[in-house]
Design brief:
Length: 205
Amino acid sequence: MERTGAGPSRSAGAGSRLGDPDTATDRELLAAHVAGDPHAFAVLFRRHYHHLYQLALRSSYSPEDAADSVQDALLSAHRNAAGYRGDAEVRSWLHRIVVNACLDRIRRNRARPATSLFEESIDEPAAPRDEMSELETKLVVDRALFDLPPDQRAALVAVEMEQLSVAEAAELLGVPPGTVKSRCSRGRKRLQERLGSVRDRGNRS
């Protein structure tokens, strides 16, 4: 968990006062990076990479997509660090960027799981009709997920895909537990409505 420390108001001149980067807080490292320290972000990257990569693995179709999503997210965080407002912990800020990067990559590569599925199961006796049905359901759910507002989508990914408790999700997202519950509830309702309309169209066809 992130060590507590000064907020982003220290960014002016923070690079010259950073001292030992390994003992600096996440906020101090990010402020130093914004101030021009060439090594601060690398320390922040090493500190949180394992957690962020595990998050990406649970939110991606493949390890390759997970690694690419983490790279995309950290590049975005590196470039946009000045926009960090300090209203959430740095780890939660990075968490949100990684989740959005994973979801964006899934959206761009929706057709890829079909190829991977058939390649991996070509020598297996699994029923093709069942596999196709599962794949179609997964793609429909993915499309419905992308229609959700980003805050509801992030809450559902944390609770449903990462299997975090509401308290853990609230800490990572930087919002109260009640907000996580509300976002998950609204997101589930919208997903059910969207998936229900898809099933109705399928029954009429």
